[in-house]
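Reply to dn_fold:

You asked what the input looked like. This is it:
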Amino acid sequence: MIDLKNISIETAHAALKAGEYSVRELCQAYLDVIKEKNPDINAYLEIFDDVMTQADTAQKRFADGTATLLTGIPIAIKDNMLWKGKHASAASKILEGYVSTYTATALENLLKESPVFLGRTNMDEFAMGSSTQTSAYGITRNPLDRERVPGGSSGGSAAAVSMGGALAALGSETCGSIRQPAGYNGLVGFKPTYGSVSRSGLIAMGNSLDQIGPLTRTVRDTEILHHALSSCDPLDATTIPMDKRVPTPRTPTMKIAVPSDVMKGEGLDKEVFDAFLVSLDRFRTLGYEIVPMDFTYIQYSLAVYYVIMPAEVSTNLERLDGIRYGYHAPEARDLADFYSKTRSQGFGREARRRILLGTYVLSNNGEYYRRALRLRDEIAKELDHMFESVDFFVTPPAPTLPFKLGEKMTDPLAMYYSDVFSAPANLSGCPAIALPTGFTAEGLPTSVQLTAPRFEDDKLFSIGKEFERVLQ
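and this is what came back:
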């Protein structure tokens, strides 16, 4: 019996290399869990029909000595990442039946190492949501409490790992869509420096914000996956050349900044605040000084995000008109009626809301969007200035514990508030990581989030592993 609860990429690799079990046996163990739990959890939208073919390919690499750490490792991928010949829908009816014509660069990078992609996971439609309740293919439940949400938009990927249905998973972030579900499922979730992982083949939500990242059980697994995903891609002009990924020289301060209002617990659930204070004590145990700070611009991050993001959504989703691929309305009087019916029937309520909001933002000659971009620059500069005197920036990944299914669905602003602590990292392009910290008396997971300066992703892995040791 393979111990799926305590397995890691490195221990699985060692066992596969030693012949303790085969890649087929490892994959079958995860498929058995998926068969048992997925009908209720709905983490996966599809299990690929070539899982065992992939497993056999990986096994050959162990036989000929070319296996890497990721060879044979069972991984789930979010339903907005393209793999040639496979369906991808971004959990939307409007892409129903779409088959990818090429493979995302991030997946290409992994495929070179012959992992096993188990299937595609559920998500909020076009990554629009914080709960994985806006999918056209049903909600996803939190495996730790099936009456609660798994977070979003990468809730299916988080649930797949949390329920034992994958060793690791890939998610994508526009604003906390990896970190928040990681926190809600007791996992590690990582958003890399913007431009370090190619967006080619990732179905776009907000081009200037989106990034692919891993969800795993340990920081080391996250580190391994990120290094495999990272590359400079000629197909994505926003990826940064490897020789340019140099952090600004700075002397370590052993200080971590925390917003003064967060230090007082303002806007936080009591359980979240209590767990956050315990995490701060653990960082102190590691030798870090906690420094409360007041900010001029960072406090406006959420508002800025909800101007920039819908504007980019409106532009990106304009191409989905039912003419070239995906869903199209069966009956229409004329072309205008066809467009109207296709998009109103193909997009869900939240997608339509954000398209309309983005179209409004881009009206008036785009003045709202331009003002938001100027304020975004000020937020990035304020973070840069802060990092001159501290090493990291700490908050919870979300202000609440996993909330009940159906909660907040009629109150979009309450749902959007879930992103309040995520936005600064996405707007500035800084890397950020969510680390599990334990459980409440009810058994709900708690988490802490660290943000670092651009290109200091590896420092987040270092402090993350230190933090894990304190928890053990």
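Residues 175 and 423 are 5 Å apart (CA to CA).
Hope that clears it up.
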